[in-house]
Amino acid sequence: MAVDVLLGLQWGDEGKGKIVDVLTPNYDIIARFQGGPNAGHTLEFEGIKHVLHTIPSGIFHKGVKNVVGNGVVIDPVILKVEIDKLLKMGVDVNAQMLISKKAHLILPTHKLLDKASEIAKGKNKIGSTLKGIGPTYMDKTGRNGLRIGDILEPTFKSKYEALVAKHLNILKHHNLDYDLAELEIPFFEGIETIKELTAIDSEHYLNNAMKAGKKILAEGAQGTLLDVDFGTYPFVTSSNTTTAGTSTGLGIAPNKIKNVIGIFKAYCTRVGSGPFPSEEDNQTGERIRQLGHEFGATTGRERRCGWIDLPALKYAIMINGVTELSMMKADVLDTFESIKVCTHYKYKGEVIDYFPYSINENEIEPIYKEVKAWNTDLTKLRNKAAFPKELLDYVTYLEKELETPITIVSVGPDRTQTIEM
Ligand code: GDP
Ligand code: IMO
Ligand code: MG
Q1: Cβ of 420: how many Cβ atoms within 10 Å?
Q2: In 63-168, at which residue ranges do the beta strands (DSSP E only) sit?
Q3: pTM above 0.85?
Q4: Probe target for ligand 2 pocket from 14, 34, 222, with the most ligand atoms within 8 Å of CB
């Protein structure tokens, strides 16, 4: 069997957690391929809301295996908190989750380095979640990192100390207050928790599962515009959030990938710094933020809000080879009379319809088409037949522009508020 991929097409928080949870009954395995606890994936069902950071969003379905792939970076402190919460809810995490021996560990000093780096950047800071993501991936590519598989080795403690010594040497040049001994207490508690999990060679596990006819869904974190290569660099995360990340982050060959489900909001948001051409830094943005509860699932920060951006979406669809789309949070626009769609940019005085190399606020201006909105409560709709005409028109228009079918429309945070088209 082939592998399907689900990933974000904007700057993250598109609703990946919700849709992975909804689609999980169609799969045997859900596998996270990159990112770490900078992610916050929200699921809602039976009146309860859950936010997952490291654990794949299929964890609430008994009998489905959840794999944390080699491309993921893991903070033992946060993973332990996540596991403990799930255990309390009666989820048998150890039976349902497998973790790659090749996944890298986020050390307490990686988080300190993240903070030091942001402080040093001053007004040019990335707006990182400060979860240690950048420094951990730097140590991975710099060939210094520690991996899950190292934990069980007798050399773990000495390798840990050697890496920490390197970090402390760098931190000496920054004026940062910290108590490492205190930070290490929950870290080593988390390490003990990880020892009880099943660590595997996930590339073998997944390829064997494929051979045995199992269905796999790869779950992305962040979004395409935060990809380290194709996003709005340097205001990006430190991993490949795009389809290619599935191959490197899980050991799945490109020719094994079948459907790529690209997910986007009916409008657009971004958290942290960096360009956002269709941002509404005004009352309209504030209205979307309040209606859409656009506050970070990981940091609680206000998300910046604006209109849907077609040149950016087309770019994301191209890079990822998206075969179908899920449109999220249509209900957030329920009370609007009309909505705007950015169709082109005015860039350095010229009208363009593609995503340019670098976007500086002074150089780019969105060009909008205004469409009539539905002005109806969508949250109770459960099938396409009940859609107001304006919503159907919006979906049809986007499908035509994006040259890709929209197969899911989401009209609320709950599992049941999902319409298959
Ligand atoms: P993720 O990181 O892509 O998994 O997305 P987040 O969980 O960070 O953010 C999406 C937010 O929108 C969460 O609070 C979800 O519960 C919520 N959400 C998802 N789909 C919908 C929807 O269709 N309508 C509304 N109103 N909220 C939604
Ligand atoms: P999910 O998976 C939204 C953003 C941060 C910052 C930049 C770099 O929930 O969609 P990092 O911590 O990686 O160094 O931050 O990326 N960012 C996200 N924004 N959703 C996320 O994940 C994000 N993960 C990182 O705000 O601008
Ligand atoms: Mg999120």
Answers
A1: 10
A2: 65-68, 73-74, 97-100, 104-105
A3: yes
A4: 222
